[in-house]
Amino acid sequence: MVNGLLHIPGEAEQLLERAVNAFRHLTDMGAQIVPYQTQGLLDTGVDAIVEFEKGTVRARYATEVKLAAIDRFKILETWQGLRGFYREPRMLVVPYMTAEMAERCRLLKIPFLDAAGNAYLDAPGLFVYVAGRKKPDIPELNTKVAPHQAFKPTGMRVIFALLLNPALAGRNYRDIAKAAGVALGTVGWVLRDLHTKGYLHEVLRGEKRLYNPDRLMQEWVAFYPVKLRPKLNVRRFRAPHPDWWKNVDLAEYEARWGGEVAADKLTGYLKPATFTIYLHGKPARLILEQRLRPDVNGDIEVLEAFWDVAEETAWQAQQPDDTAPPLLAYADLMATTDSRNLETARMIYDRYLANAEN
Q1: What is the pLDDT of residue 10?
Q2: d(Cα 29, Cα 6) in Å, to the nearest integer?
Q3: Which residues pair with residue 49 across a beta bridge?
Q4: Strand runs labelled E in the chain
Q5: Selection from 30, 79, 22, 34 nearest residue 54 by Cα
Q6: Cβ–Cβ contacts within 10 Å for residue 149, how many?
Q7: Residue extent(s) of CATH 1.10.10.10 domains in the chain
Q8: How far apart, in whole angstroms, are the C-alpha atoms of residue 158 and residue 179?
C-alpha cells in the first residue's frame, strides 16, 4: 500500500495497487510502486513510478493510471505519440484490456498492466506478455470501465472551453455553456464528472478551479479524434492549385486554420501537405470563391468550429488571427501520428501550452 503518498485520486491509487498485485501473483516477479515527484512540466501526467525486478534485471516505468477502459485503437495511437514528450519509459494502467487491445499495445510497443493480470512489458532482459484473461469481478472497478461522461462530445466542448480559459471554472453555468456552445443542462454533469476525476477543486466556498490542467489537456487530446472530431461534419475538398491557401485570409470567412497550416503559422517549421479548416459559418462562400471541389480523398478538410469566437481573445494576441487555438492545432497533429507532425506538435506544446495555469 502506498497509503495516499501518490498525487492521484484514491480510486486511481486503488486501481494501480490492484494491477501491480495481479501482476505479482501471475508472474511471481517483483513489482513495487514508487511515489513520483514532478520534476518539470513535461513530467505532468505521471502518477507513479513502477519498478519491476526479475533476478538481477530491473526496469522502471513512469505510469499513467486511466480509470476508463481504452476501447479504441486511435486512443492508443495518440497516447503512443504523447509518450515521446517524456523523459522516462511510459506505461498505462487500466481497469481492463481486451485481448484485441492488448495485441494492439504489443504492436505499438505500449507497456500496460490491468487489474486482471493482463500485461505487456518489453525492456532489456525483461519481456512479459499476458492477454486474454477475464475481466475481474470487482463491482467498484467495473463501474469505471465505461468512458466518463465528461469525454462525450458535448463534454469535450466544455473541457475545451475550460482549457482555453481556466478562469471559466469559477464562473456561472450560463457563462460556461455560452463559451462551450452547449445546452445549460450539460455543464452541471460535466463539472461533476471532472470533480470526481480530480480535475476540478473547490478552493473557496462556491469557487471552483481546474487542477492539473496539463493532464486534462493530454486526456482531451487523446479522446478528441474519436469522440468529438467525427461529430464536426467533416467534408473533404480539393483546390485547383497547390498554393491556393497561401493568400487566403480565413478570418474573412469566419474560419480558422487547424492542423498543418496552423502548425506552420505557429512555428514556421512544418510545410503543410493537408489543409484543415474550422468554419463558424456556412461553407458556401469559401467553396465558391476558392473554387474548392468536393473530393472524398481531397487534401482539404472543412469542419464545424465548436468554440465561441469571443473566447479567442485569451490566446489570439500570441499568434495569427486566422489560426485555431494552439490546443486544437496540437490535437490535430497528434491524431496523425506522423513523425514530423509529432515533432511540430511538441514545438506548439512547448511554446503555447506548457505553461497552462495550474
Answers
A1: 65
A2: 23
A3: 34, 62
A4: 30-35, 48-54, 57-65, 90-94, 112-114, 119-123, 126-130, 200-204, 207-210, 235-238, 255-258, 275-279, 293-294, 300-304
A5: 30
A6: 15
A7: 149-227
A8: 8
Give per-residue pLDDT as tens, 127-182.
Answer: 999 998 988 776 545 444 344 578 889 999 999 999 988 888 888 889 999 889 89
Pairing mode, strands 90-94 and 57-65: parallel
Residue 300: all three cell numbers together: 482539404
Q: List pLDDT tens digits, range 69-79.
A: 665 666 676 66
Q: Is the pLDDT of residue 41 over 50?
A: no
What sign results for the dihedral spanned by CA atoms 114, 118, 120, 124?
positive
Q: Which three cell numbers stand for residue 319?
A: 499568434
149: cell is: 461522461
CATH hierarchy code of domain 149-227: 1.10.10.10
CA 150 centroid distance within chain: 13
Residue indicated by cell numbers 482531451? 220
Identify the burial level of 124 via C-beta atoms within 10 angstroms of its C-beta, where 0-12 means exposed, 13-18 middle and 19 or more buried: exposed
- Single-letter amino acid, residue 222: A
pTM of the model: 0.69
Contacts of 285 (CB under 8 A, 6+ apart): 253
End-to-end CA distance of the chain: 28
93, 112 contact by CB (below 8 A): yes
